[in-house]
Amino acid sequence: MNLKISGLGHGIHYFDFSGPVEELDLDELFVGTYKLDLKLDRSVAQILLTTKLALTGKFFCDRCGQEYLREVLTEFKTAFHFTRPNEIGDDDEDYKLLNFDADKIDISQELKDYSSLAIPLKNLCSEECQGLCPKCGKNLNVEKCDCVIENINPIWSPLAELKEKFNNNK
What we know:
- By secondary structure, the chain is mainly β.
- The chain has a domain at 2-117.
- Helix content is 13%, strand content 39%.
- It has two helices and seven strands.
- It has helices spanning 108-117, 157-168, and strands at 2-4, 11-20, 30-42, 46-60, 67-83, 95-99, 104-106.
- The radius of gyration is 27 Å and the shape is elongated.
């Protein structure tokens, strides 16, 4: 996504964008539309860009395996420092370098990176998700099963073996 900066005076400028996520060329797990709110603060030496991006992601629950939709929000700031053409070097992770003559800035890579970082590490369809039965595999959110599951802490297994050995010697 390119932002036109030529003709923008010094000071704060606000931009709102929305559209299909395909416009941003993001990961396939993002679906529907996006909403992008930008605050651009331009001064003589730099542009500070504050970005808020709202997306919808299509995920699979880590407990039950069901597909569900979830809103993904990310906020980030990027600084663009103006420099002369012969002074342009490599960008730093903290800021990007721009030629004084630049008429637009490309924030496509930042949108991709920060939307990927906003993906939750643990995906749950709901906090009350009961998951799958470890014996029969039924989705416990949909139906109950008759399986008996013994919850034995593995730390006690040597004691259980000793007890079994003791009972067999009687």
